[in-house]
Each structure stands twice: as C-alpha cells, then as structure tokens.
C-alpha cells in the first residue's frame, strides 16, 4: 500500500502544452477499484472513461482549460495516475494532464477500500497544483473532486474503519472556503451506512445511484466544468447534479 505523496509536486510538463494561457480547471477523479468492483463494474468504468476522454478532446471549451488527475484506491493501495501511467509515489511528478492530451487508464479491480487515504491524496494534489499555477502566474477555476465508490472505508487489512471521521472538519472548512467542489457518488450495491459516509463528506453533492452509470456521471462532471467556466451560481450546479441523480441527462436544459 502507498498512500503518502511527496510534500511538493513540481510541474513536470510545461504549460506550453496548452495553446494559450487559458484559466485552468483542475479535475480529480477519485475512483474505487477495490475487489467489489470486479467484473462488469470495472469494465463499465473503463469503457466510460475511454468514451469520456474522446468527448473531452472534442470539447473546445474544456479541452484547453481542464486538467485531469486520477486517484484510485484498491489492490495497489492508493495511487495517483498521470493519464495511463501509475506514478511512483517517490517521484515528484504532478498527476494533472491537460484534457486535450489526457489518455484514460485501464483498471483492474482488487484489494481493499482505502477511501479516506484516497480522498486525502486528492485534496493534496489539488492544493499542490493550485500552488504551481499561482507560482506560474496562471489563474484557475474552483477545482472539482469526484469520489466514486460502491463500499465503505476500510483499513489496509480490509476491515471497516471509522478513520474517515478525521476528514470531516477538513472537508467542511475546505468546501466552506470554496477551495474545491466535492462530489461523492455511491454506486452499485452501496449500503445505507456507505451512503451516510458520502453524505458526511459532501452534504450538498452526494448521490446513491442504482447500477454503475459511469458514462452519465462523467458527462455530469463535464457539465459542471462548463458551468464553472461560465461563473455559474450554486443553483446551477445543484440543478446539474439533480438531473444526474434522477438520471435525466438533459445537461443543456
């Protein structure tokens, strides 16, 4: 298991990969790849990520402003992905990739549900990337973190744990300060207790969805990113999220 990340994450790709000095929008997908996701769920996730990647490349408004990082928690512990590459935690490389250059990883499902550590890493890489952008004189929109799971937080041995409670005051402060917007999505057979964890993490933007509608979920994240670029008010994000929760993908309405 590896859940720690270097304290500083110097940018390892030049910002000239963007064709202009567009305002950046960091987006982190924090994904459960534990053993309960084996079979159809992980295949559905892989397919949806591949489709979403193509859509990102084709979306003029997002492809040169959104930066994508992927965090997983499962058989390999907690890991950060730079596109299809799982980063060595000892290597100080940013996981963020410009959307127009992003390539989707392909996951296998195994292991335990280190949700707490994964969300901590997601918050850390967001804070590090914001510091990099400020140091480069670049502006950014409010980052988005999307946590997706079908289970409960466990420790490294697979036993359920209450360690996630340590995140609650931090998450409350960070979201109150508008440092990022967190979406917490329960899929598949997530239990009532699992749903309560997600409600605690993201009081406004949590959902319990039947099945594994990863394609719709990723489209919702794109719609939210577009709204962020337009300076939309909170009511717009709540409407987009409500449409996702009710499985009405009328993002443009």
Write a short abstract of this structure.
This is VWA domain-containing protein. 36% of the residues lie in helices and 17% in strands. It is α/β, with parallel strands linked by helices.
**Which structural class matches the secondary elements?**
alpha/beta
Helical proportion?
25-40%
Largest sheet: 8 strands, mixed
What is the terminal separation in angstroms? 44 Å
| Low-pLDDT residue spans | 1-19, 249-253
Outline, from the CA principal axes?
globular
Number of helices: 7
SSE run? EHHEEEEHEHEHEHH
Average of per-residue pLDDT values: 89
Strand content: 15-25%
- The Cα radius of gyration reads 17 Å
Give the number of DSSP strands: 8
């Amino acid at each position: 298991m590896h859940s720690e990340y270097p304290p500083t994450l110097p940018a390892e790709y030049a910002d000239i990969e963007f064709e202009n000095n567009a305002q950046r929008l960091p987006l982190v997908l924090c994904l459960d790849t534990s053993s309960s996701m084996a079979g159809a769920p992980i295949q559905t996730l892989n397919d949806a990520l591949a489709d979403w990647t193509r859509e990102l490349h084709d979306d003029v408004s997002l492809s040169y402003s959104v930066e994508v990082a992927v965090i997983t928690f499962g058989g390999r512990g907690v890991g950060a992905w730079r596109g299809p590459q799982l980063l060595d935690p000892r290597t100080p490389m940013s996981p963020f990739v410009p959307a127009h250059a992003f390539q989707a990883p392909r996951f296998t499902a195994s292991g335990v549900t280190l949700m707490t550590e994964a969300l901590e890493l997601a918050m850390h890489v967001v804070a590090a990337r914001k510091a990099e952008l400020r140091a480069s004189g670049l502006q950014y929109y409010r980052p988005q973190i999307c946590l997706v799971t079908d289970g409960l937080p466990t420790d490294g041995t697979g036993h359920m744990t209450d360690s996630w409670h340590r995140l609650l005051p931090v998450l409350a402060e960070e979201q109150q300060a508008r440092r990022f917007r967190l979406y917490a999505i329960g899929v598949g057979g997530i239990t009532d207790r699992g749903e309560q964890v997600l409600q605690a993490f993201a009081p406004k933007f949590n959902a319990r969805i039947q099945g594994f509608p990863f394609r719709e979920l990723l489209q919702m994240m794109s719609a939210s990113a577009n709204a962020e670029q337009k300076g939309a008010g909170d009511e717009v994000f709540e409407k987009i999220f409500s449409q996702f929760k009710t499985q009405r993908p009328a993002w443009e309405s």
